[in-house]
Amino acid sequence: MFKKILIANRGEIAMRIIRTAREMGIKTVVVYSTADKESLPVRFADEAVCIGPPNSKESYLNIPGIIAAAELTNADAIHPGYGFLSENAHFSRTCQKHNLKFIGALPEHIEKMGDKSTAKATMIEAGVPVVPGSAGILASYQDAEELADEMGYPVMIKATAGGGGKGMRAVYKKENLKDAFESAVIEAEAAFGNGGMYMEKLIEEPRHIEIQIAGDKFGTACHMSERDCSIQRRHQKLMEETPSPFMTDELREEMGAAAIKAAEYIGYEGVGTVEFLVDKNRNFYFMEMNTRIQVEHPITEQVIDYDLIREQIKLAAGDKLSGKNYYPKLHSIECRINAEDPFNNFRPSPGIIKNLNIPGGHGIRVDTHIYAGYQIPPNYDSMVAKLIVTAQSREEAINKMRRALDEFYVEGVKTTVSFHRQMMDEPAFLEGNYTTKFMESFKMNEKYNIEF
Asked: Which residue in the list 10, 227, 233, 292 is annotated as catalytic?
């Protein structure tokens, strides 16, 4: 087992890793930018190393600086968390070269599954259902036009190196295809330095349901059931729940088996997530694989009573997987609390937190790095907390989430607490009748605009 782990991340995920590492008797080092000097991970890690200014490229994406910090502190492993360098094959390979264990996917797995067109081709080989579309990257706009005519509209254009909804365009009519294709290429080149595009048939009224998996170096994989991530805004998840209200026992078995097939086909090591689109008839299609721990992993932990960060560290250290599949025993919902103003188009709201009350009680978990007096920097993702509730049933979980949100207040900045509180009263959500299109018609109600 590792003696010291360097955490190449910030915020709540850095705190999350510190906690499990400490329970396992492992020392921790965090790297931080000058903007995060007063953050909780810096206070609670055994050691902290400043590696640069607020700009991510000069700090949390600074591979030479992170490797130097690991060597300086005699760390023997690096945990990248999620985001930043967590799915960077070059970083994973660089860790190998410096005899540092990367607590994440092997570089070849990141390369195989990180590029969406390559991942799709790999899943076709593995026999996992995929959305009909191009076999690989489209060579030209003409190829896109011919394929769209062949498949029929609507279609979805996607950047092969995409993420966070960038380089994605839904096209419903042929006359809109050219503009959509060209603008997606420009956006993808600016965001990822790669303008490669592929095309898929657009699945209408889809659910976004993902399967949590884990695999060991001995070729064994298991699944830990599903998470429904369909409540999204601009392809960014806002809340998640497990089990999915759309799920059946039969569908869970089929999707779990497909996810295991995907993981075992590439010999995947570590924890990861296989993401699917599920249509209204419960046909499911591989969308992508995330070769890292997910933001929403706590709801899975809650319903199966299992520490996924601990499992991730143990698998990286070479331990065997039990090989057992896990099924939800309870119901859990996660609300991502962002420093954004939902009454002003979710505009970012960085600033100083003057007062803070975090909810508690049975079945309440809050993963966060904020405190009264903390200054939320404008340089990074706006998520400041994850509020997770767990109960015996979905109805009880929703009632518990209502109560927890009523207790959760942050004074000094705007947050999405009011959005989530309204969601707990939305008829479509209460009925479990929602898709990834839900937010397109959603409007905030002023009665939830509570000032603290």
From this structure: 292
